Amino acid sequence: MNRDEFFTRVRAATAAGRAYRVHPSRRTSSPLAPAIEDLALRMTAEVNAVGGRGMLVATLADARLVVEELLERIAPGSALCWQHPLLERLGLAELLAARSIELLDYARLADLTPAQQREQCLAAGIGITSATLAVAETGTLVMVAEPGRERMASLLPPVHVAVITADQIRPDLFAVFRELESAGFDRLGSNVTLITGPSKTGDLELRLTTGVHGPGEWHVIVVRQE
Asked: Does the domain at residues 37-223 carry the CATH identifier 3.60.20.10?
């Protein structure tokens, strides 16, 4: 490949990458003058802007219907899930059982050997989580890992579905870091992951590819009220 061909491919890959580009606001938020906006609406809009599918629903019952539709379409054999109060109220275990989808979570994997855990997790067709917090400005999920809320649920399966409520959304990362700091950084879990959009890479021949290093489908369901 000569120099001109190389730069032509770089320019093409860069142009393709702009399809799911985040365009941050020029406004920087201040704790003294917080922005007044519909954070739930902004969150779903930004999720769509970065290549995911953001859905704003009124109630948890509506969120349940969306999850049912996704399970019907994807028809996974197993689901790698967080243990989270919101998912319990959603009735996730019952939704999966009704479709003969095996539920894999911390409690069910704990009795398996490491090799069995790895095999089960890698075979999961969908990951279903909530989030610790979310960032409206960029459509980002903030995931603080802890037992029962492992990061692999959002990273290993080809499809990741996150169900969050409007009160989990913060306007920007400044607000997130202030909240994490006030809770005590020393009490955080083993890692904090920021997820913005489905997995993407330009490593393969400088071509933008989705779903290579993580989920190719990314759904965020935002519930206004429970």
From this structure: no
